[in-house]
């Protein structure tokens, strides 16, 4: 084995980290490589992998950046071909968790062979997805049943025998006195019978007719209340010759010539459920009056009102002296407690209640009281939440939104606690970070240089940000693509700071197109590298796919669209995909297109190994941009779909908001419907788009946590300034690792990754950076084409609803979002999740309410208040925000379509939880894009030998510059070395390399102040410079580049080589180059 003459550790880039004080460098979710131990808060990954997972570049990081491996050992390995472990979906392996166990328990009666034979679900993963769908639907049904119980069922559970009553008296507001209620029924021992029923009873049974004078009268004396002889021990009055006095004359006009009628005879004729109800005021009023004919004299036993008028008139001590005394002294009171204390009174109680019952006292049971309290609480909670959300939305529109694009942003006034002004400059007042170490990456304390302060009035005008206009294409036609490009070209933003980055997801010919979408995009550009009919060579990269599709190839075209520089990446697929039966060669999905951009900037920021495609994009982007602008200068990316038209000043407003607040990591504008009147399907969507932005996103912007930035029109921050350094945001390894998952074997993971990649990206941003903000900027607007047929709308909303439910489930677990308790973003997410799930039940319960309203005399009015708030508050929001009367009409159309939005679409979506037709498993022309290996099938040789060559940037650059035969026509236009280069001799020892390997590290940011300063001894500095001068490629010596010494004094480069080597030594070992501080 050959060794360097200097030994293994004489000229290392950085000394090996002390594992006792340095954090682990593993990129896995168990601990981030950018974690500070004392701040680390572990978070489990959203998508758990059972086999080694390889992202575009994390396979190298996971392999090399560990405590047992140094950067020196990784350099040689990174320059060799990387053969990733191909993630193979095996039918025989399903991860066993409590959730999969619950799903199997619910569906254990349906064996796999039945699903395969009858349901067409032939693989175990598809069968497991169906079982998990049933489990999810069971949870949804349970929550809907809980809502139904709270609305209707709890009333019968807590207050099951709610009696129907008529009041004895009422308070007259005009006279200010209590008056008797006029009734037309008949009172018999407290029960109310219809007059016509009682009159028919007497006429049929006893040939007696009652006059209308007896309407509302008490006919209890005509009936024997004790046919069961409960009063046999007492000398009760005789039941012979029963009479009733006429209410208007002193003569007894209602009389029987024989014994009183048994009460059982009347109840068998008609069973009366309605009772006469007395209030406590009635008892007090009657007890103060003297005993007169036809006037009750009342008291209470339990909840029964006793009329002792007949007992007092008879003036007999029927029940004994003690009871007689109690009856006379407790008139007008509740005698329940006293009667319970006396034995003789307790014995007489049943007889008294039977013979002298007059009605019931006005009171509620404890169950009824509890029911009223619970229903009123939920009513108040729902109405309060709605009022709060709408009021906060109005606050956002009236005060906050106006500050977003003005100099200073929200850094002044009441909302300063969520904002930091100053763009890329070091903020004047920077509040300390207190979040976990998984959020961000910053420079170490010795990088806190005094950067010059920016004039707030010139933040946007004099310091625009370099922005990527990222457009993803799939099967769109020329008209929609050209309209999108024209809208981006017509922007008022500086074209010198824009780059149009287009990714065509495969060679696909859309419906109605005569040519593939990729060729349409190429025809629209003015190419600089090749002619219109020429093709660029294809370059490999690692795609988001399984098996042989893990490796993909793409062509890179450069040119201009009008005056905007443009790069077109066309995913063309491998040679095995180029056959007539494949209608989608190169297609890997939108998430893979986004990963091309995200991993590219991650590799640029961290100087990681480049795939052939990454390097091709790098050098062509640098050559294309004005003055050879390096890709690391881009800070923002605007993601736009190919069917979206952006308004001219939208990018200006978005970048201004980003400039004014460095805590913003993402924002979106308002998406409007372009084809409003195309059909009734588009008409019902107009107000839905409006309310989702000006209500939901406006409210979430107050907390700085918009839960979904739409993929058609959103801007993200690639990297953010902090403490004089840079931290990756969209290019953060934690985000890229979880966004770049190839093997998804659970229903939850598939709904996250295959149906709603844009919403999942927003979820990851909030999860990784809970202290940063994502907001809605209403000044930025765009217009998009919405589905105009119900079938397309059904398919679109199925993906959106299912993705929303699963993403909200993940966000509900993020406990460190803004706010606390009920005033927190987490509480809002939980409420949104529950409301999304119970929408079908809510619409059915609303229908039941209207049915109940028409068939009952005592309906529940709580749902009516909620309905009025739901319909009235959006109308107020329209008047205060849109200020367009036309939106009232669109709202009326939306209300008529509520059964579609709240019942049809959710029910269809929930039942199709296991439908992943939008994403990796999508089929076109009978082509299955996901190969699922059976239990006995083995990977093919092509799968076993998959390799993607990866090298560091300087290796690619040396090969390109030293091999002009590879590109003889382009070498003259190729970029020079990206920036002045420093080279150091490094001795590395690894299993793949036995000799030392020289490494060249470019100053990607053109300024050593962004890197750690690590002085070396003087003799090492001189030897370092002499040993590595021969590795530096020829380049002009810059005269104006200045670096900073450790004491912050400027020092010209190349004029003091010894000091240069000493003070600008680049620490690319992650744990020595950066410290961590989450924000």
TrEMBL record:
GO terms for cellular component: cell septum; plasma membrane. It is found in: Cell membrane. It is a multi-pass membrane protein. Residues 278-359 form the Chitin synthase 4-like domain. Residues 51-61 have a biased composition (Basic and acidic residues). Its EC number is 2.4.1.16. Residues 1-70 are annotated as: Disordered. It holds the Pfam family Chitin_synth_2. GO terms for molecular function: chitin synthase activity. Keywords: Cell membrane, Glycoprotein, Glycosyltransferase, Membrane, Transferase, Transmembrane, Transmembrane helix. One of its GO terms (biological process) is chitin biosynthetic process. Its main location: membrane. It is an enzyme of class 2 (transferase). Residues 16-34 have a biased composition (Polar residues). The chain crosses the membrane at residues 96-115, 135-158, 837-855, 864-882, 888-913. PANTHER family: CHITIN SYNTHASE (PTHR22914), CHITIN SYNTHASE 7 (PTHR22914:SF41). This is chitin synthase. It comes from Mucor ambiguus.
